[in-house]
Amino acid sequence: MSNKSAEDKRKPRYGILDGIRGLVLCSMIIYHGCWDLVYIFHMDFSWYQSRGAYVWQQSICWTFIFLSGFCWSLGKKPFKRGMTVFGAGALVTLVTCLFMPQDRVVFGVLTLIGSCMLLMLPMEKLVKKIPPKTGIFFSFLLFLLTRNINNGYLGFEEVRLARLPEQWYQGLIAAYLGLPFPGFFSTDYFSLIPWLFLYISGHFLYGIFYNHNGMENNFWKKELPFFSFLGRKSLLIYMLHQPVIYLLLSLIFGFWQ
Predict the structure, then answer these.
(1) Do 68 and 202 meet the contact criterion of CB atoms below 8 Å apart?
(2) What is the pTM of this model?
């Protein structure tokens, strides 16, 4: 039997983290089911356009991105993982542009998370030099300051601190970075800025726990029945959930018509 190096050994699963991911995954599936009902099957559901629904949607994406940053150091083969997620995002873009151009996804959340995972490779040495508490403070502050960059401003939500030059908002590369040009459209748009800063915030939070041996606590390894299982299959479920929801709703609405 050959000896395996430390890098080759299988890293432990953290059931709590998988469970949180599974819980948010369920929330996302319900949210997207409501989206299909409103925008594809034209159900009158006015609450879905309310502030409460917006907060619900934001809670899903914030948690996914932050948790992905937290978990970056826990897996092995980061380049392979990053390319897998990025490739899944590219597949979603290709399929929606070909078959659902009116609901196309360009630079969606999988493209973002895959990009963040890959960018962490060259950034890792620099990030490690920053104390985690300092890092999470400034990275989250940068996220808040650039949250409105897609709309042409620095600032967060209703707070507009400064207008950015319109000439910056040109071309697909600019849209990928966070500067969408006039006429750009995507039903699921997560640009590199501001979301990379939220991802890095999650990474710094992991560093805080790691420095205090918090990840060695058995609490993290506890399973959340059903949800931890879903969390471990999150990419596959994400890729399949919308076609499955659409098929089920089509069957239900077709039966009742």
Answers:
(1) yes
(2) 0.90
